[in-house]
Specification:
acyltransferase activity, transferring groups other than amino-acyl groups; hydrolase activity; C-N_Hydrolase_sf; 13 helices; Nitrilase/N-carbamoyl-D-aminoacid amidohydrolase; elongated; Aminopeptidase; 24% strand; 28% helix; Putative amidohydrolase; alpha/beta
Length: 514
């Protein structure tokens, strides 16, 4: 029998999915409709959400149009004050305090387009959150809920009395009633939670949904530790006769790092200019172009060593000629699983530009490793605090800075700035430099260095904020442990909390790249 109707014309497509960058304009527009009079998200905040915890950012889509969204992050709730505010728990809306090992999901917003309410869109979003909590084996979901109808009753009852009346179905509140119907239990009422939420009188109901499928995992015994062992190479520049000579020296240090069960070994900036000592090219600009011809051998060497010795290698940096015939100073990350990433030097020194014609990169990158997120900032780049702040906001816990300086003044610029970056961003920083000399190599004739590993300055870290340091101007290695768990705890509960206490209302570092 022939179909009377083409049913496809009547079908609708409701999808609950992970948010994408392309959704951001629609979400910003929808938020202004959902929360009139309240400050909406900024685009950079939503981009930060996706960069930090994409799984926790969910949208509802109907026939290709975004009609609802919810945002969340992971935390250990017991690390936050009972009277915390929305700004406290979201790091001012940027969720850079997200803890991937947290036990609790914290929901920071749910909204549904006004034209699509009463279609159980909010219900679907809540169920998606619960499913994610089960998938990640989280203990609970916690929310700081608005009570937007409270302003209608504020003259005759306290927030507690209002919440009690809503709980007993004497008063309807569009948010609190919905949350109660979705299995959330009231924990407490927080004053001053969201400063621009006048309808709620700035109050919020702190509520929790417990995951009955949660399976406790003993990943914490008292105070846990997450150590990362770093081997820093202070490399002696000496005349050599072939690439094999350099390879032999490099392999020796990688072997030392591996024997010490290091997670990372880091070499200095442009230590491969040692190859210039046998190139017999008096012109620095031509010598550097000849040096770039060793790039395939350099990459092959370090990739092989990283895999064979089971250690992640920051391969110092090397001059590389790319397709545009420009030469860049590039630091490579050679992971022990055989994968490779690279960071271009962003700030080129006058010396590099004058003698070698080096071009600048323009991207700050943060790399995933089996020991967490790291960044690489080559020599001069560590002297620009904006770069370290951007990398920290992108999740970096350690910044490696291969450097090459010819005198003590230049070295101290790198050292002091690396220590400052460790304090102001509550991260670890590592500097690795060259020593010795190359008498017949123009612009690389003398070196000065004292390499080191630096920590924030607080009680749980090394007394002087120095995990370890080499002796100046001697070829040697430094091996030290940094603890990412202590770093995480101190960001939450340290004597000072530079990341949490930033005044986003007064200033901000804006990164212009996607």
């Amino acid at each position: 029998m022939a179909e009377q109707f083409d049913l496809s014309h009547f079908e609708k497509s409701m999808i609950i999915r992970e948010m994408s960058y392309a959704d951001i304009p629609a979400i910003l527009e929808m938020q202004q409709l959902c929360f009139p009079g309240m400050e909406p998200w900024k685009e950079e905040q939503l981009r930060s959400h996706l960069g930090v915890f994409a799984q926790g950012q969910i949208v509802a889509e109907l026939d290709g149009k975004v009609i609802g969204s919810c945002s969340s992050l992971l935390i250990n709730f017991d690390e936050y004050d009972d009277r915390h505010t929305w700004d406290d728990v979201t790091d001012g809306g940027y969720i850079t305090n997200h803890n991937q090992d947290g036990y609790n999901m914290y929901g920071i917003e749910v909204m549904v387009h006004p034209e699509y309410r009463r279609m159980q869109v909010g219900q679907r979003l809540y169920e998606a959150r619960k499913e994610l909590a089960r998938e990640l084996n989280l203990k609970s979901i916690i929310i700081g809920g608005r009570i937007p109808n409270y302003h209608k009753h504020a003259d005759e009852m306290s927030p507690r009395e209002y919440v009690d009346s809503v709980s007993r179905h004497k008063i309807y509140d569009p948010v609190l009633t919905f949350q109660l119907m979705n299995g959330f239990q009231l924990m407490r009422i927080n004053p001053g939670y969201l400063q621009d939420d006048k309808a709620s009188g700035k109050y919020a109901t702190l509520m929790e949904w417990n995951n009955v499928d949660y399976k406790p995992i003993s990943k914490r015994h008292f105070k846990t530790s997450l150590p990362v062992r770093i081997c820093v190479v202070q490399y002696l520049m000496r005349a050599i006769n072939s690439f094999d000579d350099l390879a032999n020296q490099v392999e020796y240090f990688v072997d030392v790092a591996s024997d010490a069960h290091s997670d990372f070994v880091v070499f200095p900036e442009i230590f491969t200019t040692q190859l210039m000592s046998f190139l017999n090219e008096p012109s620095p600009s031509q010598a550097v172009r000849k040096l770039t011809e060793f790039t395939p051998q350099y990459i092959e060497l370090f990739t092989d060593l990283a895999v064979r010795y089971n250690v992640n290698i920051i391969g110092g940096s090397h001059f590389v000629k790319e397709e545009n015939d420009e030469i860049y100073n590039i630091a490579y990350l050679f992971r022990r699983d055989g994968s490779i990433d690279k960071q271009y030097k962003i700030h080129i020194t006058p010396n590099e530009r004058k003698w070698w014609g080096i071009s600048a990169g323009d991207s700050v990158r943060v790399f995933d490793t089996d020991c967490g997120k790291i960044a690489i900032q080559i020599c001069y780049d560590i002297e620009f605090p904006e770069l370290a702040r951007i990398a920290t906001d992108m999740g970096a816990n350690i910044i490696f800075s291969p450097f090459c300086t010819e005198d003590r003044q230049g070295y101290l610029r790198v050292r002091y700035c690396a220590q400052a970056r460790a304090v102001e961003n509550q991260i670890y920083t590592v500097i690795s430099g060259t020593v010795g000399n190359l008498p017949q190599t123009e612009n690389m004739d003398i070196q000065y260095a004292q390499s080191g590993i630096f920590a924030p300055s607080d009680f749980e870290f090394a007394r002087d904020g120095i995990v370890g340091e080499t002796n100046p101007n001697l070829e040697m290695v430094l091996i030290g442990d940094v603890d990412l768990e202590i770093l995480r705890r101190q960001r939450q509960d340290g004597t000072v909390k530079q990341l949490k206490d930033r005044r986003h209302d007064v200033y901000r570092v804006e990164y212009k790249q996607d």
